[in-house]
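Record now logged for everyone:
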Amino acid sequence: MTDSNQFSKEAYDRLTAEYEDLTTRGRIEIAQKIETARELGDLSENGDYHAAKEEQGKMEGRIAHLSALIEDAEIVELSGDLSSVQQGCVVSIQYEGDDEVEKYLIGSIEEKREGVAVMSPGSPLGQVLIGAGKGSTVTFESPNGPLAVSIVDIEA
């Protein structure tokens, strides 16, 4: 059994709208592009035709991806208590020995927001951050050995 894809209501609605748009308007437009390119003649040397077919392949790949995401989707909301890191929150962290504070949204790449990098809750750092509180320090195993990270802030 596969794990569900956890999304905020906003991300789920955005993904569903994109899926609907691609499966309706998108497919009609690409079919029209292919038909127009076919009318230009010999398909073996027809750059417009090949470009339209490539675009169609990429769009169908995105449709399949969205379908899989939506099919196993679970809508999650942040709990009112942000005393610990949870999926969907933005966490500010500082690596031990570093002066720079980095901000990450804990969740799926589909939750991306402007100006905030996304960290998977299943990543090594994401796993140790989930449940940890503001001001605490967690250690995770990186490819270069253990790293300590302090949680500076937790935001919705």
